[in-house]
Amino acid sequence: MKRDVTGRPLRSWRPLLLIAGALALTAAGAAAQWLPFTTETARALPAPTADEPASPASSEVAVLAGGCFWGVQGVFQHVEGVTRAVSGYAGGTRDTADYETVSRGRTGHAESVEVTFDPHRISYGRILQIYFSVAHDPTEINRQGPDVGSQYRSAIFPTSAAQAAVAKAYIAQLDQAHAFNAAIATKIEPDRTFYPAEDYHQDFLSRNPTYPYIAINDLPKVAALKRLFPDLYRDQPVLVSASAAPTN
């Protein structure tokens, strides 16, 4: 669950200000420090050397978890070739797939995003390249930024054996190249069902660009996407709700 500067739960219907800078949160009895995401935090990683073979299909689905789903969804809504990006939960069961229950951190679910894309316009490997480069920090274990708990873990939920193979090979490629200062913590979790989140979580970044959590943690990720992947960036996001206002 998103938290304020004191560590109290930040509920979606009772927004509390988050400030830039180092914030202290308690995790497993120890204080942890974090700094907000900046465009400099992101890095342009090399594309996967192994990718999915060409497919006649016009649509494919990737399910990715990388902290709060607001930012991950917001990033992929700005990616060319993506036709839909939905916030939700993966890793647990249907009966626990709701925000309040998942936020307790004991369901097995991770806040996730189901990314539907046209494989003729962007490959699964390139989706992963963006995911590791700008959508989150894959070296964090059970946290992203101010959010702590297994529900904020870095995880890939492959929808096919081919996706699992590409993800495994890419993680090995990046670790071998020492692309990060620490080993990648991302787990590959096959055979998990995705469950869409509540309507009020959909298009949250685009509908709330001035919300402090979004401005500090997530808009810099979209800016990094535009800077590092100009060939894959789309200015107008593809939204779940046609009535949601696009990010300026």
Strand fraction: 15-25%
Q: What is the residue-mean pLDDT, rounded to a whole number?
A: 87
Placed side by side, the strands forming the largest sheet appear as 9-8-3-5-4-10
CATH homologous superfamily annotation of the domain at 58-228: Peptide methionine sulphoxide reductase MsrA
Output the structural class.
alpha+beta
Rg computed from alpha carbons, rounded to a whole number of angstroms:
17 Å
User: CATH top level of the domain at 58-228?
Assistant: Alpha Beta
Shape: globular
CA distance, first residue to last residue = 27 Å
Main sheet record: 6 strands, mixed
Based on the structure given, which CATH architecture of the domain at 58-228 is correct?
2-Layer Sandwich
- Unreliable stretches (pLDDT < 50, length at least 5) are 4-9, 11-32
| Beta-strand segment tally | 10
- In the CATH hierarchy, the third-tier topology of the domain at 58-228 is known as Peptide Methionine Sulfoxide Reductase, Chain A
Q: What's the SSE pattern?
A: EEEHEHEHEEEHEEHHH
Helix content: 10-25%
Write the layout of secondary structure elements.
Elements: E1 23-27, E2 30-34, E3 60-66, H1 69-76, E4 82-90, H2 99-102, E5 110-117, H3 124-135, E6 143-144, E7 147-148, E8 154-157, H4 161-176, E9 187-188, E10 194-196, H5 204-207, H6 212-217, H7 219-228
Parallel strand pairs: 8-9
Antiparallel strand pairs: 1-2, 3-5, 3-8, 4-5, 4-10, 6-7
